[in-house]
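Table S5 (text form). Sequence records supplied for joint modeling of the two-component complex.
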Amino acid sequence: MKMKITIAGLVIALLLSAAPSIRVLASGDGFNDTVKIIEQFYHVKHQSIPLLARAGMKAARTAARIKGGEYKRLAEAGSVRVAFFEDQNFNSRGQIAAFKRSMQTTLEGEWSPLVQTLAPKDEEQTYIYIRDAGSKFHVLVVTIERHEATVVQATLAPDVLAQLMKDPSDMGKALTEDATINDH
Amino acid sequence: MKTLFQTILRFAPVLLLLLAGGVMTARAQGPKLQMDQLDLLANKASETVDVKLDERLMATTARFFPSKDDADIKEVLKGIKGIYVKSFTFEKEGEYSQLEVDSVLSQLRGSTWSKVVSVKSKGGDNVQVYLNMVGDQITGLAVLSMEPKEFTVVNIVGPIDLQKLSKLEGQFGVPDLGIEADKTKKK
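The corresponding structure-token record, covering 371 residues in total, follows.
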């Protein structure tokens, strides 16, 4: 009887730990930790972006579009960080919830999750995390699609964040587009 | 022995969810619901939306709606300590079970929660609204929307009523639930 209980306990313990989960030793830098989680879970490699220095300038433009010019700056120039994964295969192998859990485990504490959208069939995911940065906020946006992914960290003034929060699902799209799309 | 293994394996997920439900019930004495146990549905859902606007974020940003257009929303958000939404859309019917629904409903059986609205349609839609009351004060609200291919839970912590909820629909991650404050019947 005791043997049976022990085996049952082992099986349950195994079941609890069976869900694949990538754990990155959190460095306290949410941006780098997130890039590492993506690389480990999907076996992909991020690319350096030569336009990184320019990204901050680009990110300043969304505000005017969002509120008819009322908000001059979406992000402070130079405070945007971007990592890009291009032409790679993002297949979560039916374990998209495990990836979400890994993100949560790594970022919890310092970062607060704001919005997470998942569409496993299309391998599309968006994560938006927020962190206090004195009088401003750091916003971390992760978008993953079947063949590309982007990680953007930007600094937002509270009034801009408040406006973006009205439509949190659109927030990630607005931030990512401005940090990455070259419209020249 | 093989039978024992098979039985355990077959029922382990159910047992775990029941166990989690029990823990949730014990924890959910306040207006904030535990909803993380629903996350596993993301593997089956064709689309999942998870919104968390916590107390700190609400308090910080609520001050920053300066325009006249925002006066209404500023009033609605006054005192709100959190907005939490989980919504799962499925391709086929029957992809979420009563077990998942019960893991939330069990938390609403506490003495501070009462069901104020229940709407069922012929098409199988079922919307239930619960209020958390401490004395005469509303301290929270929960909406469960159960459709054949969609399961949504909205939990708002703070002084919120149905009229305020209808103003939040479509904003701050709160989906359009089709709740009309003056037309709903109390049950």
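Note: Chain B touches chain A at residues 1, 4-5, 8-9, 12-13, 15-16, 39-43, 45-54, 56-57, 60-66, 73, 91, 171-173 (CB under 8 Å).
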